[in-house]
Amino acid sequence: MEIHLTVNSAQPWIGKGAMLRTNAGVELKVLRLWQEHPISTGEVGRIVVEAEASAAAAQGAFSLKLWEEGGPRSLTLFP
Question: pTM (2 decimals)?
Fold first, then answer.
């Protein structure tokens, strides 16, 4: 899954972990979270979440939760 994130706070955002869940509520095994560099204020940054899923589970809508390294901020996206 690929998302583009804009940060609106003074502190850059550095992803630490992710949880990806299917529309049916099945949690997929996240293999890695990747971002090129910390996302600074006003910048649009690309985040890629790689997860293990069957072809059937890879279809449809998902919810995604991301959290940052060393901080309390998290982001949850719903379909």
Answer: 0.83
